[in-house]
Amino acid sequence: MRIEDHPVLEFKRGKKISFTYNGEKVEGYEGETIAAALHAAGVQVLSYSDRHRPRGFYCAIGNCSSCFMEVNGESNVKVCIEPLQEGMDVKTQKGKGEIV
Amino acid sequence: MKNVELLVIGGGPAGLCAAISAAEAGVDVLLAERDEWLGGQLVKQTHMFFGSEKQHASVRGVDIGKLLVKKVEEYKNVEVMKNATVLGLYEDRVVTIQQDGNYVKVNPKSVIITTGASEKTLVFPNNDLPGVYGAGAVQTLMNVYGVKPGNKVLMVGAGNIGLIVSYQLMQAGVDVEAIVDASPNIGGYLVHASKIRRMGVPILTRHTVKEAIGKEALEAAVIWELDDKWQPIPGSEQKLDVDVMCISVGLTPLSELLWQIGCKMEFVGELGGFVPTRSDKLQTSLDGIFVAGDVAGVEEASSAMVEGSLAGLSASSYLGYKIDVVKELERDYLNQLNDLRSGPVGEKIRQGLAKALISEQAANPGQGS
Predict the structure, then answer these.
(1) Of A30, A33, A59, B261, which residue is most buried, by most CB within 10 angstroms?
(2) B142–A3: do the CB atoms touch at under 8 Å?
(3) Lowest mean pLDDT across B75-79, B153-157, B237-241, B324-328
(4) Element (H, E) at B356
């Protein structure tokens, strides 16, 4: 799902880094967001609402709060703007998430 | 508490130009940007801009962003805070900012709010399914991160964003099945629409979405036709086999901070929702609080840049900076805005602005404090 040839843009991807998604190892690139890396890996469902409806991102720029996931144990992280980091533990969020 | 002369909230086209214009006048500027980079949504605009040379016409949006960022960084009197979300703007003019997990308080003498706008959504069954995305979101995913949103797209909305993103989807190797728009007319520029039609994508006016279909993510979309009274015509349904739906039905100003500090707000549909009332030089109903760009009324990046420059100038005058050519500059910016809003394309904006403009405000930005 990554764009390789583009008539206008050239994508200079950062170094490959790995993280876990619901315990499974996934690879992405430095400089991209968690949501972009997951989307490239075919993951569209980021959370389930209180009524158990699947949720993906909507605005991708941190406005709409549709992309909340649990990252390194912290709930309600906007993964559409959160930079991907090596070894991150990313999980599908269920409902409102636990706030410590 | 950090004391500053001018705080600019938002580092998009309006905020960057506001910071440049005020810094040029000698003002000490603090620019707070929520993202880790400056440029706002210019970063994903791979198309060449219209307008005139002064607004960098024929340059791609992404490159205009780079030019502005470089310019801002050259000013010693501009301090940039990145990754810094403004949390609150209080009546006593204290501003709270969260940066990298730290809580910072700032006390500015003047503020320019350039927070931009957010994509609207559209009501239909299952509009919350993953795969139903804002058109701008898809643009970000493709043009910033180089990731395809899916394989087959239904674009909802034939305004400029809908048309431009459709074209960019095709550039990225994604099929666009159709563009639908509830209106009887194509809202975007004909030059964009023609380009897309030449590539074989149907633009169906008087059509809207009946429903999205899918379990965990979008699997198909049903569209139907609307009659003269904008009512759906039963039996006109068409099922489209798409895995992405892009919603491009306009934007609405991100005006939370304006509400919080108590600017007078007016609902102006033509400008995207509630907007602050303002003088022609962009001061809100509150002394020393200025606005520029989409938060003042949804337009496009070219006018946002000019408004930013104008607001920066107004704030400088408010702060007591004497600028030799202030009248000439003001006239130039106002003329540029008039040009950008001229003709039939700018009619809606002109009507909207007429409702939001206050002729001369109690506090004239030219008089200083």
Answers:
(1) A33
(2) yes
(3) B324-328
(4) helix B347-356
Confidence at residue B360, expressed as pLDDT on a 0 to 100 scale: 57
- Residue B323 per-residue DSSP state: -
Mapped onto helix, strand or coil, the DSSP state of residue B328 is: helix
What number is the ipTM of this complex? Answer: 0.96
Interchain CB distance below 8 Å, B145 and A55: no
Q: For residue B132, which residues of chain A lie inside 8 Å, CB to CB?
A: 56, 58
Residue A2 lies in a domain: no
pTM of the model: 0.91
- Verify whether the Cβ–Cβ distance A58 to B46 is below 8 Å: no
Vertex B182 angle, CA B198 and B40, to 5°: 75
Write out chain B residues lying below 8 Å of A46, CB-based. 130
Tell me if A9 is assigned to some domain. Answer: no
Residue A56 and residue B217: Cβ atoms within 8 Å?
Answer: yes
Identity of the residue in B36, B140, B150 whose CB atom sits nearest the CB atom of A60: B140
Beta strands in B41-94 (DSSP E): 78-81, 84-89
Residue A11: inside a domain: no
Minimum CA–CA partner of A63 in chain B: B118
CB B8 within 8 Å of CB B32: yes
- Whether residue A59 is contained in a domain is answered as yes
- Residue A75 lies in domain: 17-94
What is the pLDDT, as a whole number, of residue B293? 98
Q: Which amino acid is at B232?
A: P
- pLDDT, tens digit (0-9, with 9 covering 90-100), for B29-54: 999 999 999 999 988 888 888 777 78
Asked if pLDDT for residue B366 goes beyond 80, the answer is: no
Tens of pLDDT, residues B223-252: 999 999 999 999 999 999 999 999 999 999
Domain count, chain A: 1
**Which residues on chain A are in Cβ contact (under 8 Å) with B138?**
60
**Domains along chain B with CATH numbers:** 2-118+251-367 (3.50.50.60), 121-247 (3.50.50.60)
CB atoms within 10 A of CB B100: 10
Q: Which residues of A touch B131 (CB under 8 A)?
A: 44, 56
Place of tokens 């459709």: B166
CATH code (residue A61): 3.10.20.440
Provide the token pair at B15: 């905020």
Q: How many CB pairs under 8 A join A and B?
A: 97
